Amino acid sequence: MKYAVLDFETTGNQSSDEIIQVGLAIIEPDKTISQVYRSFVKPGIPIPPFITGLTGITEDDVKDAPELDEVMVEMVPLLNDVVLVGHNVAFDFNYLQSALDKTGYLPFTGRILDTMDFLKILFPSLTSYQLGQVAAEFEVEHDRPHQADSDALATALIFLKCLEECAQLPLLTLQRLSDLFAGEDSDLGWFFDAMVQEKEREAMPSEDGFVYYRQFALQAEDWLDIAAPRDSADRNPLADVSFEQFMEQVRERLRERLPQYEEREAQNMMLNEVMRAFEEDKHLLVEAGTGTGKSLGYLLPAIYHSVKNDEKVMVSTHTINLQEQLRERDVPLLTEVVPFPFRAAVFKGRQHYLCLRKFEHKMNRKDFATPKEEVMTAAQMVVWLTQTESGDDEELNLGNRGGDFWETVASESESCLGRSCPWFRKCFYHRAKHEAGVADVVITNHSKLFTDIQAGHQLLPGYERLVIDEAHHLEDVAGKHLGIHMKYFTVVHTLTRLFKDSKTGQLANLRSSLDASSAEKSSEWCAVIDDIYPTLVDVKESWDKLSELLFSLMPDRSDAAPGDPGQFVYRLLPTRKPKDWEILTALENQIYVGLGDVLRKGDRLLSEIREEQDDYAAESLLTDISGLFKDLAGERESLRFFMKLESEDTVYWMEANGNYRSRSLQMYAVPIDVSAQLKEFFFDRKKSVVMTSATLSVDKSFQYMIEQLGLTEAAEEDQLITSMLPSPFNYRDQALLVIPRDFPSVKGSVGDDHFINTLVQSLADSAVATKGRMLVLFTSYRMLRQVYDPLKELLSAQGITVIGQGMDSGSRTKLTRRFQGQNASVLLGTSSFWEGVDIPGEALTSLAIVRLPFQPPNHPLVEAKSERLQREKKNPFMKLSVPQAVIRFKQGFGRLVRSSQDRGIVIVYDTRILESYYGKYFLYSLPGPKMEHMPMNQMVPRISEWLNPEA
Predict the structure, then answer these.
(1) What is d(CA 825, CA 664) in angstroms, rounded to the nearest whole number?
(2) Residue 833 and residue 295: Cα distance in Å, rounded?
């Protein structure tokens, strides 16, 4: 096969736009690139400035270029008898067909392949499929992005990598791919078919490193073969070794491994504090700022304690991100520097693991809801099985619609066949559980800790010592898990997976398999299923109606612009139920009774079929249906709890979005105060709980956290150690905090014209002084939107890009990556950017905080907590709002200095920090930067002077 890799640069992406540059790389059948054809093309229309900005192609480049006719004369012979390849090939193909048509040639009728498809299928774990990112990942030279010849050559080299990868795949996987795309009549089907034929002609290697099972090729061996890290008969490697001696050995090995390794005072203090808490059976609150190296600060004592005493230590993080970071960065390093074998296992929530039984079932039935997208996801996963050892969805880049597919094949307890499943020995969830069982240290997340409590401690291996990282989130996660959170779609998904119509859904699948079976009772059973259908339809109608009525209770928000995320929030009070509430409870009752009827009939039906029939395919379907019934039963009880509105200790509220109305409805019922439950589940039961985070203290005191987390009694009984570690950075030299004291103030979440104009001008001036490299943190998405367009306009003339969360598409990680990739840009973010974003080094020089991050006082949970404090004769603002805002403010400040080389500026535009009596709590809680306030007109000169002291 001969391939032609094509790339055009054009004046835009409308049909009226014209080609300005052509790149064409020819790949010969022996997989060599024989030539790269390149040419500018003279367009009939001017090149827009943003295209020149993107491609670097100017009017001068094209003014003497050949016309399209001349270029096509040279290009057309190169396209003879080739397979056309491109990155997002549809774009280039459309321009090619129109160019052929304009210049009087016949259209191109050969086969067309897209490198995007190949990358998705063959490299399912790539974080980005953008050409520049992929080229960097594959170390392919791509020196002039967005120039056609450079793009075409880079795409050709990437395509060759894909062909190489494809040749490595086992025959069985290629056959699966060929089968998946066969019905599509697509060029991908043709390609994989050709690859299968090529592979069949090769001699089969006796050992190819894959495990073959039930017509799938896998990477993962049986998990029953995973042994404990040390043989139990051997002497304990720490028998006569003190923690100091152990640390000496580790440090020696760290120096060998990392020439730049230096001991840090704060990390040594942390190591000793954690060790002390473990040895004395006490709890510990330890605040460790950026740069302390806190992961090693708790992992090393955890490993030492666990191995020496032969008891597990549990480590919990708030985000999956941090769990991944520990798995990929910290644990491999420790494996090299700890002088004996140990095992640290990562264990996540069950829904993160693929259920191979469900996946096999879906593949064999080709049970795809949206065939085009789902065939692609299935293809990714077939290849991923030859690569993954953990079966964890975080490894997959599933794209937008992949999440729905994942839900149908994720592991879940309700539909698990356990030991009777033919996939049991290969099961990813049971592997993770087994690994956690034999590990010394188990790394999990806050969510899983609470799911484990709700499941009666059946999920995690037993533990007496627990380390909670990012502990400032513990209270929040506890509330979500110990309460109820239901979405409109939670119920709809379960209902439609059971029964969408008489042809789709698991009940319909069961009915058709009963129809085909010879069981004597099958017609009787089919009648029961037919009897269940109408009840499910009624339940769905009542649920739709109830959701609409609940949505209609939401007050109209006068200050919300359309499309504001989380636009509506409405609290329900047990003491003052909305009028006509009984109409809604009557609907809920219909749902309750209807579902009760379905569950009774359904459970009886399933147990009868199970008794009579004994075949795996049916068993697997019955298990899935019984799992869906259990989900419905849970949803029925949650809805009843919510609608009853009877607990005084619970805050009930609803949220919805103006665009999607009742379909976006979410219901919450959360305990107002979780401190008693945290005390009961953790601090009373466990010997030692270590809590750490960069932000636990307010105004140099831990009192707020001690009260929120239920540690008051432990503190009184001397069961609690608190420690505030010194910062490893010299903040006086590394950070300057500037407050423009004559800045206008603002009320509420919307800025008036004067405020917004002053803010935009000041941000623009500061961004020019710092050459972009600026992160601007907002507390309201509305204000971010008010600033985005005018700021973009002001800065585009200076060559500085503005990236806005929610304005530019992409997740937080994608936006952060774009910000780091461009040398002069300003990133505007709201809530999720205040923490967890790590942008070390030059990419971030200045941080602007527009408003102090107070929670909206009308948020139901804040409101309920404030009412409770008022009843206790305490000041809610000082006891709740200020400490919460200070912790958030410290998180935001922490984005700036991420290493001992970083230098930066923080601008706080909220003058309350100077004028109010509580402002000092914010300033005193920071780790000691240089602080200055000045009139606005002196700010930019001061910033420039501080950043360039020599100038």
Answers:
(1) 34
(2) 22
- 183 has binding-site annotation: no
pTM of the predicted structure, to 2 decimals: 0.84
Q: Name which of 463, 446, 373, 359 is nearest 411 in CA terms.
A: 359
- Fill in the amino acid letter for 535: T
pLDDT tens digit string along 795-829?
887 888 898 887 776 677 777 877 877 778 899 99
* Residue 19 bridge partners (DSSP): 10
The separation between CA 20 and the C-alpha centre of its own chain, rounded to angstroms, equals 39
E runs forming strands in 138-229:
211-213, 216-218
Angle between helices 753-769 and 939-947 (to 10 degrees): 20
Copy the structure tokens of residue 131. Answer: 């050409």
Centre a 10 Å sphere on the Cβ of residue 873 and count the other Cβ atoms it contains: 6
Is 289 annotated to bind a ligand? Reply is: yes
Q: Does residue 545 have a known ligand-binding role?
A: no
- Residues 149 and 140: their CA atoms lie apart, in Å, by 14
Any idea what DSSP says for residue 576? B
Is 288 marked as binding a ligand? yes
Give the C-alpha separation, 530 to 168, whole Å.
49
Question: Averaged over 607-619, what is the pLDDT?
Answer: 78
**At 818, which helix (H) or strand (E)?**
helix 812-821
- How far apart CA 932 and CA 565 sit, in angstroms, is 36
Residue with tokens 């099985």: 385
Q: Tell me, what's the pLDDT at 951?
A: 61
pLDDT at res. 213? 92
Buried b vs exposed e over 376-406: b needs ≥16 C-beta within 10 Å? bbbbbbbbbbbebebbbbeebbbeeebeebb
For the chain, the straight-line distance linking the first and the last C-alpha, in angstroms and rounded, comes to 61
In angstroms, the CA 22 to CA 677 distance is 66
Would you say residue 567 has pLDDT above 80? Answer: no
Calculate the CA dihedral of residues 628, 634, 635, 637 and round it to 10 degrees.
Answer: 150
Q: How many CB atoms lie within 10 A of CB 286?
A: 26
Question: For 685-728, where are the E strands, in sequence order?
Answer: 688-693, 720-724
The answer to whether 293 is annotated as binding is yes
HSE-up (13 A, CA, CB side) for residue 507: 28
Cα 406 from Cα 380, distance rounded (Å): 12
Helix (H, G, I), strand (E, B) or coil at 904: strand
Does residue 266 have a known ligand-binding role? no
Residue 594 in marked binding region: no
What are the φ/ψ torsions at residue 933 (nearest 5 degrees)? Answer: -120, 150
Phi, psi of 485 (to 5 degrees): -140, 115
**Best CA proximity match to 486, nearest among 668, 634, 345, 610:** 668
Nearest to 757 by CA among 730, 721, 793, 723: 793
Tokens of 301: 């004592």
Counting residues of the chain whose pLDDT is more than 90, the rounded percentage is 56
Give the other-Cβ count within 10 Å of 495's Cβ: 22
> Per-residue pLDDT tens for 872-923?
999 999 999 999 999 999 988 888 887 778 888 999 999 999 999 999 999 9
Beta-strand relationship, 846-849 and 774-777: parallel
pLDDT at 562: 43
Q: Is 110 annotated in some ligand binding site?
A: no
Ranges of H-type helices in 77-114 = 89-102
